[in-house]
Specification:
Number of helices: 4
Strand order of the largest sheet: 1-3-2
Low-confidence stretches: none
Structural class: mainly alpha
CATH architecture of the largest domain: Orthogonal Bundle
Shape: rod-shaped
C-alpha cells in the first residue's frame, strides 16, 4: 500500500468515526428539543414552572392571582392554565 493510499484510508476511517459521533450528538439534541417542546406545550403549569417559564418571581405570581389570574386547586396542589396566563398578560400590557 502506498503512503497516499494509507493516508486516504486513515482519513476515511476518521471521517466515519467523526460522522457517527456527530450523528449521535445531533440525535441527542433533537431528543432534547422534542422534550423541551413537550414541556412548553403543557397546558397546566405548577407555580415553579410558571415562574421559570415566564421569568417572574413567586411574589409576582401571587400579585397576578390577587389581580385576577385564576388558580386551579386539585387536592393540595395549585395549577395555572397556560391560556389564562397568556390572557392575563395580554390584558395587562402597557
Amino acid at each position: 500500500m502506498t503512503t497516499e493510499k494509507a493516508f486516504e484510508c486513515i482519513a476515511n476511517n476518521m471521517f466515519k468515526v467523526h460522522s457517527v459521533t456527530i450523528f449521535n450528538h445531533i440525535k441527542k439534541m433533537e431528543l432534547r428539543i422534542e422534550e423541551l417542546e413537550r414541556e412548553k406545550r403543557k397546558a397546566y403549569l405548577k407555580q415553579k414552572e410558571v415562574c421559570s417559564e415566564f421569568g417572574i418571581g413567586h411574589s409576582t405570581l401571587k400579585n397576578w392571582v390577587s389581580n385576577g389570574l385564576p388558580e386551579i386547586w386539585i387536592e393540595n396542589r395549585v395549577y395555572y392554565d397556560r391560556k389564562d396566563i397568556e390572557t392575563y398578560m395580554d390584558k395587562h400590557k402597557i
